[in-house]
């Protein structure tokens, strides 16, 4: 006789932890401990339908004799939330009862936990546990991939914003030189019309750049050489290899071409016109300032050497000392004006003490500081009776007007008259005053007038009229920092007219 395996007691429950045994009245006789934890309303002795509702087979829900469905697959659903679901097999028993060998229907470990169960509650032969672990691993991978994708999207968006807001025109090219991506500034710097097709390769971009550049710089443009130099540059290099070129319209562009890995390349183009002009202005300023200082220094050095090494007659010694004094005074004035300009540019008027200043009182201060008795003898003033107070730094504004008056007297070498008219004159919708200084001096040509605000420029090239050439630069800076305006008209041999407009004080205008 062939032996048959027998399961009972703990061995049976270990093999089928979710078993359910019913009598012929479909009352619960016994159930697995795991099933009782998952369905707390399942009570021994009570009808099974109080806790579970059969959903499959279809007729099982209304049938009183479940043995009719012997060996059928069954699905039961709990009546209370979270409404667990079980599936398994119905096996008829000899005593008229039925045995249901069930397993929970879950798709995630969280579903199992909500039932108060763990993986250890599942039978070892039940593949549900393995499927749950696989699902959890897959879900973790999906979550990680989604988080990574979100981070990549954020980083990509940040990179896009950075390139769009950057002062560089940026373009990316693949290993074949095809254009993959670029920011709007790139097309702007290339001057590529919006109505035309954007260049699609590095070769097209190179042709466009050479068309834009002056011939000498067009010949120097070699993007592959730039990429090679960049790749060979040491990691500690402070300034990556770049080429600065000039366009036919006068702009200066800095170009870098870098290897971006996988034989792809990035082309950077930046407009450095302002920086180039500023560097040139600094160089010119230092060169001119050194030249202007060298002239009096040479004179001072030569005359002081005469005093030290020669025995000069008293009259000659006095002349030499007066020359040294005069040149030293001129040099001090030059240095003070250079420092004034530097302070004005650095501070941009932040150190101005703006106040409401009565015009007549302020004019008296200017005349006292800048006009001697000889000058006042040639000077005439015409001033409106009703003038608003002006909103100025009285010292700086006085310096501007004083420089204009000094120029008027200096450039009228024959002792011609100088007039100052002061009127209440609006500028646009702003109230203010207009100070107009007129002389009958040597005047200026149109070419000289165009350079009047240049530093160290003097309309008298002979050097007979003393001055640093910084006075009108100071006037322009001071007036503009007050929110005012400067206008100059001149005619050779007739004279010059300089008009300053200064704003009225809001409180007392």
Characteristics:
alpha+beta, 15 helices, 42% helix
How is the secondary structure organized here?
Layout lengths: L8 H7 L3 E4 L5 E4 L1 H6 L13 E5 L16 E6 L6 E8 L5 E7 L4 H6 L13 H38 L2 E6 L5 E4 L1 H7 L11 H11 L2 H6 L2 H10 L10 E4 L5 E10 L2 E8 L1 H37 L4 H34 L7 E3 L1 H12 L2 H5 L1 E5 L6 E3 L1 H17 L7 E7 L7 E8 L6 H5 L20 H11 L3 E7 L3 E9 L6
Parallel strand pairs: 13-15
Antiparallel strand pairs: 1-2, 1-6, 3-4, 4-5, 5-6, 7-8, 7-11, 9-10, 10-11, 12-14, 15-16, 16-18, 17-18
Describe it.
This protein has 509 residues and is α+β, with helices and mostly antiparallel strands. It is built from 15 helices and 18 strands. The chain has helices at 9-15, 33-38, 109-114, 128-165, 184-190, 202-212, 215-220, 223-232, 273-309, 314-347, 359-370, 373-377, 394-410, 446-450, 471-481, and strands at 19-22, 28-31, 52-56, 73-78, 85-92, 98-104, 168-173, 179-182, 243-246, 252-261, 264-271, 355-357, 379-383, 390-392, 418-424, 432-439, 485-491, 495-503. It has a 6-stranded antiparallel beta sheet with strand order 2-1-6-5-4-3. The chain is elongated and about 150 Å long.
Largest sheet: 6 strands, antiparallel
Count every helix, treating DSSP H or I runs of 4 or more residues as helices: 15
Percent of residues in beta strands?
A: 15-25%
Distance between the termini: 126 Å
- Rg, rounded, reads 48 Å
Q: Strands of the biggest beta sheet: in what spatial order?
A: 2-1-6-5-4-3
């Amino acid at each position: 006789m062939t032996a048959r395996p027998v399961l009972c007691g703990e061995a049976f429950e270990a093999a089928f932890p979710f078993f359910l045994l019913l009598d012929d009245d479909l009352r619960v006789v016994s159930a697995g401990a795991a099933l009782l934890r998952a369905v707390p309303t399942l009570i021994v002795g009570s009808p099974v339908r109080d806790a579970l509702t059969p959903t499959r087979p279809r007729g099982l829900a209304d049938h009183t004799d479940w043995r009719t469905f012997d060996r059928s697959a069954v699905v039961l659903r709990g009546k209370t939330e979270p409404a667990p679901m079980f599936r398994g097999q119905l096996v008829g028993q000899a005593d008229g009862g039925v045995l249901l060998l069930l397993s929970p229907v879950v798709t995630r470990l969280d579903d199992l936990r909500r039932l108060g169960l763990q993986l250890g509650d599942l039978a070892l032969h039940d593949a549900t546990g393995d499927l749950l672990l696989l699902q959890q691993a897959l879900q973790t991978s999906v979550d990680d991939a989604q988080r990574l994708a979100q981070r990549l999207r954020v980083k990509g968006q940040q990179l896009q914003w950075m390139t769009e807001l950057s002062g560089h025109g940026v373009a990316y090219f693949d290993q074949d030189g095809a254009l993959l991506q670029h920011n709007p500034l790139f097309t702007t710097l290339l001057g590529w019309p919006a109505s035309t097709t954007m260049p699609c390769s590095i070769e097209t971009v190179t042709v466009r750049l050479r068309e834009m550049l002056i011939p000498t710089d067009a010949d120097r443009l070699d993007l592959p050489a730039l990429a090679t130099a960049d790749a060979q540059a040491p990691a500690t290099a402070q300034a990556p290899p770049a080429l600065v070129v000039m366009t036919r319209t006068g702009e200066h562009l800095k170009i870098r071409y870098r290897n971006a890995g996988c034989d792809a390349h990035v082309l950077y183009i930046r407009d450095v016109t302002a920086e180039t002009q500023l560097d040139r202005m600094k160089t010119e300023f230092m060169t001119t300032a050194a030249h202007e200082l060298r002239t009096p220094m040479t004179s001072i050095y030569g005359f002081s050497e005469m005093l030290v090494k020669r025995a000069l007659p008293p009259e000659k010694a006095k002349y030499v000392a007066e020359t040294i004094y005069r040149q030293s005074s001129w040099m001090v004035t030059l240095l003070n004006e250079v420092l004034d300009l530097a302070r004005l540019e650095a501070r941009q008027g932040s150190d101005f003490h703006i106040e409401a200043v009565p015009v007549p009182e302020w004019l008296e201060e200017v005349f006292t500081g800048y006009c001697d008795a000889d000058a006042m003898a040639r000077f005439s003033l015409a001033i409106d009776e009703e003038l608003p107070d002006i909103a100025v730094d009285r010292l700086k504004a006085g310096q501007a007007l004083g420089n204009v008056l000094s120029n008027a007297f200096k450039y009228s070498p024959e002792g011609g008259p100088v007039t100052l008219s002061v009127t209440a004159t609006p500028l646009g919708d702003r109230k203010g005053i207009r100070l107009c200084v007129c002389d009958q001096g040597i005047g200026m040509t149109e070419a000289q007038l165009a350079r009047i605000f240049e530093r160290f420029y003097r309309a008298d090239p002979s050097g007979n009229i003393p001055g640093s050439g910084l006075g009108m630069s100071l006037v322009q800076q001071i007036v503009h920092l007050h929110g005012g305006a400067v206008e100059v008209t001149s005619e050779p041999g007739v004279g010059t007219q300089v008009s300053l407009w200064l704003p009225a004080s809001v409180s007392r205008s």
